[in-house]
Amino acid sequence: MAADITNVLTLEHEILPVLAQRRSPRAYADQPVPADVLHQVFAAASSASSCFGEQPWRFLVGTRAGSAEAYDKILASLAEFNQPWAKAAPVLVVSIAKTHFSHDSNPNAWATHDVGQAVATLAIQGAALGLQIHQMAGFSVDKVRASFGVPEGYAPVAVFTLGYPGDPAGLPDALRDRELAPRVRKPLAEFVFEGGWPQPEGERYDQAPV
Q1: Are 8 and 21 in contact (CB under 8 A)?
Q2: Where do the Nitroreductase domain residues begin and end (predicted)?
């Protein structure tokens, strides 16, 4: 599958093309993701680094083609404004963090950080395969827990869509405009502070839209 090159990010410094190609679409093609491709992206997630090698990430996966009941449960957990477009994606996934270390049962303060690293790695592998994900905070943790029996010690972090990008023309006007709007990022001076924290006169919060 060819890489998705829609709305590629342009930055002040060159980065790997697959990083610039990663985006968060709301339009998805009506095309299932083959099982072997799904295995590839989750294998990529497993390659991410984690504190003490704990690998605290867990993923609940629902596919329209193979696990429709799980798919519908995840869809129902989404906020109402996310459901109309997310239901076009062939795969829905809940990322979950194991909140305590296995070797000593102490709280793992870095669990969600490490889950984020795993999902970011998954997203880049997906982009290399022509797939894209869209991560969402707009979902109900309580619904996920109740629907799937997620036990104590595990914390749902986010939900993401996964699939092959589709034609934005099928989206409502407001979402289509957001899909096609130029992608921007803050300049490095706003978030890279070499040598120490910037003093007020050195802050540059006016350089990029929030």
Answers
A1: yes
A2: 19-164
Region for 136 from its dihedrals, namely left if φ exceeds 0, alpha if ψ lies in -120 to 50, beta otherwise: beta
Q: State how far the alpha carbon of 73 is from the alpha carbons of 78, 108, 183, in Å.
A: 9, 28, 32
How many Å separate Cα 30 from the centre of its chain?
Answer: 20
Q: Percentage of the chain with pLDDT > 90?
A: 90
Distance between CA atoms of residues 42 and 95, nearest Å? 11
Q: What is the mean pLDDT of the segment spanning 106-115?
A: 98
What phi, psi does 3 have (nearest 5°)? Answer: -65, 145
Does the predicted TM-score (pTM) go above 0.85? Answer: yes
Task: Please tell me the distance from the alpha carbon of residue 156 to that of residue 57, in angstroms, as a whole number.
Answer: 10
Domain layout of the chain by residue ranges = 17-202
pLDDT digits (tens, 9 = 90+) for 63-77: 999 999 999 999 999
- The arithmetic mean of pLDDT across residues 152-162, rounded, is 98
Query: Average pLDDT, whole number, for the chain?
Result: 94
Paired strand residues for 13: none
